[in-house]
Nitrite extrusion protein (Nitrite facilitator) (Enterobacter cancerogenus), 364 residues
Amino acid sequence: MVPIFGGRYWTVFSTVILIIPCVWLGVAIQNTATPYWVFIVIALMCGFAGANFASSMGNISFFFPKSRQGSALGINGGLGNLGVSVMQLIAPLVIFLPLFTFLGVHGVPQEDGSTLWLANAAWIWAPLLLLATIAAFFGMNDIASSKASIASQLPVLKRFHLWLLSLLYLATFGSFIGFSAGFAMLSKTQFPDVNILHLAFFGPLIGALARSAGGMISDRLGGVRVTLINFIFMAVFSALIFLTLPGSGSGSFIAFYLVFMGLFLTAGLGSGSTFQMIAVIFRQITLNRVKQEGGTDEQAQHEAVTETAAALGFISAIGAVGGFFIPKAFGTSLAMTGSPVGRHESVPRVLHRLCLCHLAGLWP
């Protein structure tokens, strides 16, 4: 959408519209008779947050040279991913505060004498979204040369590298989002005596900070090299996690927690290094293709920038699928077998092995 509407206007729209599901969610959770379909619609509207993130990755690629793409994309993506950790840290705190009583909101008394204001977890973001919208409107710029139609962006879907790199990003960013959503649930089911509420946010925090580092390191050492080494560690951590679960024994929460932090770390590093690869690889293959077809240097540069931005947006959206797939796999395994291990290979381990095979073909 950035090449069509411009980075500034699309960011303003996709930010301000998020106020609607935030306010609506705060109203819906106060009524126990709210039907399930309402929450589905709210969740779909929250998808504009993903569109905002994906478009920001494509937009920022226009502003930085190839040598700094990894750092720029890593910092932008890391700050975006930081929202997961902030949400998991702030939400459990604000629901105990009477922040919106001036709107007539009444808390729900608990058995221990405390009072919960669940609407706060949604409404607290509305004023921040409004400030972000104003900042984007007055502080962002559009690049006229980045304009492109939908038709000119769709050919990128025919590129083999788009689907290959989508798989790599699904295994890294998808793992980060999936682990962020499923870590607390998995901890609670396997270690019910441990209060995970105040510890869960550390994982997404580590992953978000690591993403920035992954992009910077890749600019210096090369994205393929960093991503390959990172996937080896991801595969090792994915295997180790099942050795820490209770199973037939007592398990070890400390070991489980530390190994999971390692998974968050490598998922973040891999997200940064994979996006550096996307920017560099697509720019180069597009330049080569246009020149082989007899295009001018100016045409080659324009198409390289356009296709790179389109690829970053598409791949970013595909990677978010992991946010559904991984928690669903854990939940299905628990329901069918009573264990997150199940009778089959875990989804993360299968993904990481596939990606190791693909990366071996990209190694220079």
